[in-house]
Each structure stands twice: as structure tokens, then as C-alpha cells.
Amino acid sequence: MLIEFKNETIAYKNKVVFRDFSLEINEKERVALIGPSGAGKSTLLRAIYNKIAEQASYVPQDYGLVPQISVLHNVYMGRLDQHSSWQNLRTLIRPATEIKTDITDLLAELGISNMLKKRAGELSGGEQQRVAVGRAIYRNSPVMIADEPVSAVDPHQAHSLLETLSSHSPSLILSLHSVELALSHATRVIGLRDGNIYFDAVPDKISSRKINKLFSKNSQVNTSSKFNIK
Amino acid sequence: MLKTSLILLTIALFALLAADIEVLTLDPWRELGRLTLGFFTPDFLAVWNFKEALLNTIVFAFCGTSLGILLGTILAFKFELTAVRLFAAFVRSIHEIFWVLLFLPVFGLNAFCGVLAIAVPYAGIFAKVYAEIIQESEARPRDLVPVGTSGVSLFFYAVLPVVWNDLKQYTAYRFECALRSSTVLGFIGLPTLGFHLETAFSEGLYSQAGALLLLFYLLVSSLRWWLKPKFVVLFSILSWSVLPLTTQFSWENMIRFFSWEIVPWPLRRDGFFAGTGEVSWNLNAVSEWFVKLLNEEIFWGVINTLILTQIALVGSAVIALVLFPTVSQHFSTKLLRQVSHLQLIVLRSTPEYLLAYIFILLWGPSMLPAIIAISLHNGAILAFLIGRHSNLINLCHGFPKRRLDRYFFEILPRIYGSFLAFLFYRWEVILRESAILGILGVATLGFYIDSGFAEEKLDVAFVLLLVTALLNLTVDHISQRTRKHLHLSNETSSI
Lengths: 230, 495
Description:
The structure holds two protein chains of two kinds.
Chain A: E1 3-12, E2 15-25, E3 30-34, H1 41-51, E4 56-59, H2 71-76, H3 85-93, H4 97-110, H5 125-138, E5 143-147, H6 155-168, E6 171-175, H7 179-185, E7 188-193, E8 196-201, H8 208-215, H9 219-227
Helix pairs in contact in A: 4-5
Chain B: H1 2-18, H2 28-40, H3 44-47, H4 51-77, H5 82-93, H6 96-107, H7 111-136, H8 140-144, H9 151-185, H10 193-202, H11 206-226, H12 229-242, H13 251-261, H14 265-274, H15 283-323, H16 334-349, H17 352-363, H18 367-390, H19 403-436, H20 445-454, H21 458-485
Helix pairs in contact in B: 1-15, 2-11, 4-7, 4-9, 4-10, 4-12, 5-7, 5-21, 6-7, 7-9, 9-11, 10-11, 15-18, 15-19, 15-20, 15-21, 16-18, 17-18, 18-19, 19-21, 20-21
């Protein structure tokens, strides 16, 4: 098993979001979290990342790039732990050809090939998001955790970006704004609402009624789900 | 906030009753006339004679600041340790001039002594500000760095690039301060511009003084054109290479300083008269000595320093509140703003010590010149800051047409919080200045410290210096508590 929560409490900024929370995720699963904003998707992803930080890459919702340094260096930061401090300093001043080629290829795959030397802060939101994804892929870890990794690119590009993301990591855990993307890319979809798992199933088993209810503004769903903990 | 302001005002009024403010000179106006005439007829031919002093001023500033940056950076990395924080607070609470007096017996009056006197307090300031800048910077990139990344890599990838701009701006501002410090150190004998300013003023050569002052303003205002980050390292190396490093430093001097010269006299008396140079532990005599010192010097020094500080604090506030509309777009035309701006820059660039020196020349050594000098300098800085702040305010349509209404109902309420925050940050600085102006004859702590050094009573001077530092730390602490209590913003620390 890759990740296991057993009756745990998960808090964000000293506020409890998940109480008595249980969840298991296995290797090679492609899990998508969906749900209305404020459901606790980011908090859960962060908690998962904290559990397995050594073997995971993470794309946060706000990218967390260093705007002042180049795209190359931002991507390279994914592997800071795999080189000596000396090599890292050298790369900061003059990157080795090998590193340059690797990152150039990766950027081409992400559709931002000519941005290698640009400073991350100069890029558009969508481009920054690709750099953040690139940094996570470059990290080359068995698990990829990504918080809305395609929110800033257009729908068509979102598909190919998700393809790229999946092709590099055997295990994938991500949150998505678009239900359609979740259903088409994941092997398991978890519906979250107000700190509770509302459903957890393979995409085929999820009816549109369930999804409508998950996103409905009706507070009844809210309360009923709170008391219906499995 | 109103309550705090009224308390400060009341204290200042009572202090004013107790303060010694009088004009001691017979004909202050005639001297002022000569001074003004001198400033308008600057003797530029004399400037050539001061080229060495000009170079020294720059070299001392560069060496002092670069050493300060180096030491401060090291301290900043360990700033979470209480010992480091206390050490930094202690060294920055003592004025550069006091450091010169303190280093004098160990190193002699030379270039190295001057550089060290700038570097040591600046190290404390850099440590604090650098640590604060890093602490308040964007933390997300730091959180995301892979687990197991070395501290060095983390720093160079995820911290330094993020804070670089802020560090650069603050350090550049400190270079400007260092030029002031370096100039002022000339007044106590180091070969910088201040040395010649002192001579020119004391001999009544006001045209020469005017030329020197203009030279100084030119130096400070030209900084932004030639002080580029890429040249700083080069300039620093050049400065160190031309610095005449002929110190009389010896370990014997150092040991003698700590184990003999600053030891209270009653402990040394027997050894001194017996010629053995040994310290005898006569604790009764020491406590008597200390009580006498407390009654005769410490008490009055502290009282006068506080009186001057509190009056000058309110003085600065009043000047700032009166002057800031002249640089605010809500009150003044563009032309007036530009003229006022220049005026504020001149007041801001002139070191308080120099202003006080000039006013004391005119009115004699009472508290009056000190109050006016400190209030003008700090008031100008505050006016500049809140004026800039007020320009960020967008008034909606239908704001009061009369300027007085606009001032009291629209602008003042909006800027008052940050104004108080800035003011409280200056409190510690004003106290430092109040203490140091004692050297010019006002009876604050600096007066007693200076007498101690002059009479070679290093033990007395040392105790008084510790008292000054302690007073400074206390005021800094109260200022922090008050800011916290009033929920004033924390972003103003780098001024």
C-alpha cells in the first residue's frame, strides 16, 4: 500500500478540516479528487505529500516557483537533493550541457520549449503552471501529487498536459476542477465535500446524479453526508 | 492611537519644563548672518585641498559597510538564537562615535579604528534587518524544495533569489548612512570630511564649510548613479586596498584594556600606588564608587538623555505632520512638491550631529540646538515617508475642497497608523542621537562618557556606555511592545 490514513485528524492553519478520516491509496493508482471549493482537496493533497515526501513530487495550486530565477533553474530544483551542494552552485552559475539538454527536452514535451532562459516571473500563468509541472516531472519520483495542475491552460491543452503528467509517473494523485477531465484520466475518482468523502469509485460507477449532488448548493446534502460516515 | 499620542505629548511638555533651553551666545543673529553668507559664497577653490578627506570618507564607508555586511550576514544566519539577537541589539545600540572612543585605547586613532567603529554597529543592524527580510519573504518555494536538500542549496535556490532585491535596496540605503557616519567620525579626529568641517566651522571659515557641505551633498545625492550592485564588490576591494592599515594593535594593549583600564578604579588603586598593577578585590569601595557615579553622572545623564529624546521625538512628529503636505499630491502643486522634496533631502542627508554642531555654534550648548537638530533631521525623514505614503491614497469624488478639512478628515486619519509606526521606529535612533550629542556639550549621557574618556577614566566611561546601551535596549523594547499593542504594521522596519 502506498498511503494509509486511519481515523486521522487533518488540519489546515490550526483549523480541523478532516475528522476521524480514513483512506487507502495503492501503488499505480490514478486518483482524482473532485468537489466544490472549500471541500478540503488541497488540504488532503498536502497531507498525502507530507506522508510520503521522500518518494513524491508535488505541484501546488499556486506553483511555488522562484520568480527571480530562470525556468531552467526552477525545473532543476526538482532534483536539488540528488546532487551535492557544490554541483548545485555550479548549475546556478553555469549548468552542465547534459542538464540543459534534459530540461530542454522536457520543456518541449510540455509545449514551452523556448522558455529555458526566461525568468519564471516573466511567464504567463499557464506557462508558469507548465514549469511547475515540469519541475515535478524532473524530480522523477514514483508518485506524482498535483493540485489542480491544469487549471490555467485551455481545455485542449489540459488533456495533453495530463497525458504528459501520467506518462511520467506510475502513481498519480491529483485534484481537478473539471469533472470531465477527472472521469477521463483517472482510474479512481473521490468526491470530497466539507471534509468528507462523498463517493469513492471507478469512473464508470459514478452517475451524473451523484456528481450533481456533490456540487449542489443544497445544504441538505451537506448535513446528510456529515452523518453518513461509513 | 490618540491616547498614545497624547501621552507622548504630555511627557514632552513636562520634559520641556525641565529642559535647559536658552540661548547662551551674545549675538546669535550676527553669527547666523555670517554663516548664511558663507554658504552662499562657497569657496570651491579650497575643495581641491580636501580630496584626500573625500577619498577617506568614501573608503571608510565602503570598508566599514563591507565588513559590516560580512559579519551581519553570518549573524543573520543564527538570528534565531537569543544570544545572537541580544549581541546584535547591543552592538547597534552604541553609536559609531562611542565605538571609536572605545576602540581608541586598543587600536589607536587610525583608519582601522574608524572602519571598525562603522562595521560593528552596522553588523548588528544588518543581522537584524537581513534576518527580518528573510523571515518575511515568500516561503512557498522553500517549502517545496525536495526533502533532503542541503541548507546551502536551499539558500541559494529558494531564499537568496527571492530576497535579493530587498537586501540590495536596504544595503544601498546603508551605504548612504555609512557616508554620514564616516563624515561625522571626522569630528572626533579621523581624517574624513568631518575633520575639515569641524576646523572650518570652529575657525569661522564659513565659505570653506559651505563648499565642504556642498561636496558632501553631491557625494550623497550622486550615490544612485555610481553605486551599482555590480561595482560594490569592486569598490570594496579597492577601498580595502587603499586603506592605510597601520594600527598600533597589540594583544598586550587588548589585555591591558580589559583586565586593567576598564576595571573600576577602587579595585586598581592599591595596585596602582604600589606599582604592582594588580587588582585587589575591595567590593565595599566598588559599591561606594558606583553609588557616587550613579548619583553624580548616571542619574543626570539618563534624565537629560530621556528629556531630550522625548522632546525631540514629539518635535520630529510635529515637523513631519507640518511638512508632509508639501510633498503630498493632495495638497501641493508639482513645482512646490519638487522644491520641498529637495529641501527634505538636504535635511535628511545632513547628519544630526553636524546640524547640532552648527546650532550649538550659534546658540551655545543648551538643549535647544540639540532638540532642533534632531527634530529637523528626523522630521524630514518622517515627512518624506508619510508624504510618499499619502500619495498612494486615492480620494473618491466629493472630497472636502478646503485643504484644512482634507488634511484632518481625509488624509491624516488614513496615514496616522503608519505615521506612528515610523515614529516609534525612530525612537531608538533619536535616543542614540540624544546620547551622542552630549559630546557637543549638552548634558546627556554622551557628555559624561566623553569626559570619562578625556580624563582617561575608562572605567567610568565603560559603565556609562553600558548604561546607554541598556537604556537603548529598553526603549527599543517599549517601542516594540507599543507597536504590537497598537497593531501597527511590521513592514516599516527597514527604514
